[in-house]
Amino acid sequence: MFCVRTCSGLMGLRAAPRVRSLHSFPGITIDEEVAKLLALKAQIGGDNVKHQFVLKTAKGTRDYNPKQMAIRERVFSTIIGCFKRHGAETIDTPVFELKETLTGKYGEDSKLIYDLKDQGGELLSLRYDLTVPFARYLAMNKITNIKRYHIAKVYRRDNPAMTRGRYREFYQCVNDRRILDGMFAVCGVPDDKFRTICSTVDKLDKMPWEDVRKEMVTEKGLSEEAADQIGEYVSLQGGMELAERLLQDQKMCRSKQACAGLSDIKLLFSYLQLFQVTDKVVFDLSLARGLDYYTGIIYEGVLTQAGVAPGSTEAQNGTPAEESVSVGSVAGGGRYDGLVGMFDPKGRKVPCVGVSIGIERIFSILEQKAEASAEKVRTTEVQVMVASAQKNLLEERLRLLTELWNAGIKAEVMYKKNPKLLSQLQHCEESGIPLVAILGEQELKDGVVKLRVVASREEVDVSRAALVDEIRRRTSQA
Amino acid sequence: MFCVRTCSGLMGLRAAPRVRSLHSFPGITIDEEVAKLLALKAQIGGDNVKHQFVLKTAKGTRDYNPKQMAIRERVFSTIIGCFKRHGAETIDTPVFELKETLTGKYGEDSKLIYDLKDQGGELLSLRYDLTVPFARYLAMNKITNIKRYHIAKVYRRDNPAMTRGRYREFYQCVNDRRILDGMFAVCGVPDDKFRTICSTVDKLDKMPWEDVRKEMVTEKGLSEEAADQIGEYVSLQGGMELAERLLQDQKMCRSKQACAGLSDIKLLFSYLQLFQVTDKVVFDLSLARGLDYYTGIIYEGVLTQAGVAPGSTEAQNGTPAEESVSVGSVAGGGRYDGLVGMFDPKGRKVPCVGVSIGIERIFSILEQKAEASAEKVRTTEVQVMVASAQKNLLEERLRLLTELWNAGIKAEVMYKKNPKLLSQLQHCEESGIPLVAILGEQELKDGVVKLRVVASREEVDVSRAALVDEIRRRTSQA
């Protein structure tokens, strides 16, 4: 089950000029006016209607301008192309769910959920991820077998520090919850400490081992011996051979579930070989994802870059590229075989495995790339601008425009009555329109159109009848 | 400024089996456990953690399954194609705005806005339309010139009755706020009654004139003479010639703004002639859109059908097709030259004109059409299924699958170790996969793949090297 989330929580405050909000009161009956004023007063909770407010987007949210959208859509089409290549179908679920649908699924993170105000209806919350709504969808529709992708925004009440900067490589690290739990068991971690020790291990991408060990021993009350044994394991990274080695490991073998996890890792790597991607995947015993609902394999997609970028985290304990710095996880997921059962009346389990791609970080990197490069990002797909050299040809321009539109050509005209030819050409250069169809008295008399190539400034007369094909031919790449 | 809104508020309650929500409590320290329990208790506001709840989507919202998504995406691509043909660029804004950004923009409708709970941050509301956030965006970014489209969901706390059924025709009716106000003035409506009388006129698509007149006189206290004069005007429908006739109308001429509006209608129809769409547009003096912010031309796209469908409204007073029934407005908009100024510190005005398409109604009609027709809606784009006739060929299937994926072919494989050939073929027929690439011992020995056309059951041996091109050739239509 793939999903792509564009998580609100990308940006902080915007430049915020002070603005007076004006309220117009068209003539209505006194009663209505009073009622309206009272409602308004209640709404703004103030005594003066003309109050000051800050012109901004909500904290943690942002607008996307046309350039940013063009980049975002490029990212999406790449991702969607991949999903479709693998035969996925897509679904959509509402942006908010019943509050209780989300309750008890996220552990500590629950405090980051946006709740809707109780306006006399149901208690609602904005979705925190796409996984829980998906599990709700499966249980509600009794679906036990689907390969779906879902692209949507999720809402979290935090402001993650965004890392930008050119990344050096992408790789994935893999682990298995059962290996972690088995490892804890054989290292002598008391059962009731598994989860909390797990969440400490999870910090290894942000803290050096020494600090993690300290937290385990002093804060979590783990024995030094247990901590050191864990330390040996979580420093391990490799592939198939590591899984095989650990399957021979005297201590590890004592845990049935660790063995089950290791055998699955082995099987996974045999598939990865067939898929020719072993060089991109690392079996990493220090990987421990936060969310409660994972039951088997877990993985993360990580971007690394040379040099520390502002806001980026410390070098992860032994990432493949030595001095490389993690730009953080851009994707993550795993197996969650218990979640759907939480929604099923009879608790019937539906095994699920999925990945979620956090689009913002990828987007912000590509956005910066585009800024850096000279490449001009087009925000429209207009193939031809219908222009005129002389005055009083608005109607002729609109007539030609209609011909082109009806033929499926992406065409535009300037909305002025008598625009200067120069300003029409400038508009083309600014917005990357490759062709201009120029109309003049002479052209109209001759039944032709002067077709100008903006880049080369080459001009050719094309008969009106042949224009559409000529435009198609010249923009077939676009 | 085009926008497409998929408005939540489409469906009522779903079938709702009772479900017990299970909460797992992995071993954590007592303090943490207590804290977690308290938080949880607070969240569900109950004393028993294992409480009952209804498995459903929030009232007024719905899921989209893969078939519905396929139809929805077809609708979107048609609409987006039209926007792009006309040179529009796209933007995106957050799903919620500061509450005060929406305050005082919707008049009566404000009560339908979803507010977010005050969780110690800013006061937020879910967007009610895409127009006000767009105006906020323009003011914030000091944009005075943009041709944008925006496709997104908006949120309204109501449950519109959905009309389904095959529609007979689509047409647009057009009017101008200035004509309405001018008409009211010359008919002797007191200034302070313009808006309220306007909202009564707005009901003409749901009530016969007699009832509308009654409301004007008895409820709104309008004189019978004034009401009857309005009655004559609002019954008028036509095109260019009607605008010309009214410009000669002794009474109408007394209103400057009515004349301004009528001249613009005339100009509009001169353009509509050039665009060859006069047959689809009706100048209708009874059209009066609800929202406050329109300042000039207003219009609605209307679907009509023969026979009354459940929940559909009464025949509109004199729609072109006589006994036809309005399926209601599927699009609407107009000019709003004042809205951006409400956000600008100096109140600078930015003239805007736009249309909003309500996708749900269009979607539900097309969905019903698809159900009625034999046409099979594909939910994936898979070109070929990699299958095997014998056992123990999983690895060979995955190897071929990888070859195809790397070549950009949309391919799929069944996840079973040894699936039956029949079940593999059945999956293709069910999901509309046109080709099957069958591997067997013999094919592997001969370095070929048996390519089967699902529809015709024709089978040909294709050399492994030529397979990709052969698949491309045979699915070039798809």
From TrEMBL, chains A, B:
Q: Catalytic activity annotated for this protein?
A: tRNA(His) + L-histidine + ATP = L-histidyl-tRNA(His) + AMP + diphosphate + H(+)
Question: Could you say which residues bind L-histidine here?
Answer: D129, L130, T131, R156, Q172, R289, Y293, Y294
- State one molecular function term (GO): ATP binding
Single Gene Ontology BP annotation: histidyl-tRNA aminoacylation
Q: EC number(s) of the enzyme?
A: 6.1.1.21
Where would I find the Anticodon-binding domain in this sequence? Answer: 383-473
Leading EC class:
ligase
Q: Which UniProt keywords apply?
A: Aminoacyl-tRNA synthetase, ATP-binding, Ligase, Nucleotide-binding, Protein biosynthesis
Q: Does this UniProt record's set of keywords contain Phosphoprotein?
A: no
- Pfam families membership: HGTP_anticodon, tRNA-synt_His
Task: Describe the location of the Class II Histidinyl-tRNA synthetase (HisRS)-like catalytic core domain by residue ranges.
Answer: 60-173, 214-362
Annotated Gene Ontology cellular components are: cytosol; mitochondrion
Spell out the family assignment given in the record's similarity comment: Belongs to the class-II aminoacyl-tRNA synthetase family.
- Which PANTHER family would you find in this protein's record? HISTIDINE--TRNA LIGASE, HISTIDYL-TRNA SYNTHETASE
What is the protein name for this chain?
A: histidine--tRNA ligase
